[in-house]
Amino acid sequence: MRIKLLIILFLSIFFLQSQNALSQEKPKAENFIGIKGGYGYSAINLNVLLTNSSLYLKEGKIAGITFKNLSKKYTGLIMELNYVEKGGQNFYEKSKLTDSTGVIEAEIPFIHSLNYIELPFLMNIRIGKHKSKININGGPHIGYLVKENIKFTETNLTEGQFINHVNLKFEYGINVGIGYGFQFNKGLIDFEIRYSHGLTNIFASQSINNSLISQNQVFVATLAYYIKLK
């Protein structure tokens, strides 16, 4: 909990100081709306070390709509509405569940697919001159789980036999990203690499492998196309 609070405090101070430092700039407000899509990898972070690995990556996609307000010469705000495929591959340790062969008492690999509707609220800092700029983005997100699927990879177990479904559907977290943007007369094109870390435990405490932590982690690369609003 202390680490979470420190992270949030650090980001808040960073954003406020950046905004204050640039507050003397001449306002040049521009608004853009666009679409974005991308691909990446996710994991469910558990604070346990299993025989094979404690962290396995799952591939996933992201798509959504995005709004950007450039209120200052070097700073702005971004608000998005995204559909994000999260989750991860892991092992359910020493289960007493059964399959067609009898009782299973080993680590059972599974893929946990978690699809969220997510709203990030980001501060945008731009570095560069003319139309091409480096973008640094950061801020919180809130999300809601809309679809969950569990697939066992090496046994005949079914989802109905797996008792550890997500306990908390609402999620909040932090995002940091860096990318490249190019502005033309009628809009923007942005490429970004972003890391998202959930700050909520999505499973009940110690329900999977006696882990106290169960947080979503996502690493994605996205491309966004904006058109300028009049």
Write a concise synopsis of the structure shown.
The chain is mainly β and about 230 residues long. The chain contains 1 helix and 10 strands, in the order αββββββββββ.
Salient structural properties:
single chain, 10 strands, 230 residues, 9% helix
As for the CATH topology, it is Porin
Number of extended strands = 10
What general outline do the C-alpha atoms trace?
Answer: elongated
Low-confidence stretches: 49-54
Compute the separation of the termini in Å: 44 Å
Q: Please give the CATH architecture.
A: Beta Barrel
Strand content: over 45%
| Largest beta-sheet characterization | 8 strands, antiparallel, barrel
Listing every helix as H and every strand as E from the N terminus to the C terminus, the arrangement reads HEEEEEEEEEE
- Trace the largest sheet across and list its strands: 1-2-3-6-7-8-9-10
For the record, the count of structural domains works out to 1
The Rg value, from CA coordinates, equals 21 Å
Mean pLDDT: 79
Helix content: under 10%
SS-derived structural category: mainly beta
Q: Would you state the CATH class?
A: Mainly Beta
What is the number of helical segments per DSSP (H or I, 4+ residues)? Answer: 1
Describe the structure.
The protein contains one helix and ten strands. The chain has 230 residues and is mostly beta strands. It has a single domain, classed as Porin, CATH 2.40.160.20. The strands form two sheets. It has an eight-stranded antiparallel beta barrel with strand order 1-2-3-6-7-8-9-10. The protein has a two-stranded antiparallel sheet with strand order 4-5. β6 and β7 form a beta hairpin. It is elongated, with a radius of gyration of 21 Å.
